[in-house]
Specification:
globular; single chain; mainly alpha
Length: about 80
């Protein structure tokens, strides 16, 4: 197991589809983040700053991610 440079960080993993991983990689390149952790934090913060309430919150997040993915695919 790789030793951590920052003792305040923990390992975090989850299973996603190959398509989701490809979308994440595109977002990572588009944001030009140094690490994938920074990219994930940016996505989480973006969602947190939006008004996320009500039963349709997941639908709104999914719609925004789809829109971002489309922008990335056409070259922003």
């Amino acid at each position: 197991m790789k030793s951590r440079k920052n003792p305040n960080h923990v390992s975090f993993s989850f299973d996603i589809s190959a398509e989701s991983k490809a979308r994440f990689e595109k977002i990572h390149r588009a944001l030009k983040s140094k690490t994938k952790s920074q990219t994930l934090e940016a996505i989480i913060l973006q969602a947190a700053f939006e008004e996320i309430s009500g039963p349709d919150a997941l639908l709104r997040i999914e719609t925004k991610i789809d829109h971002l993915t489309e922008l990335i695919e056409v070259g922003l």
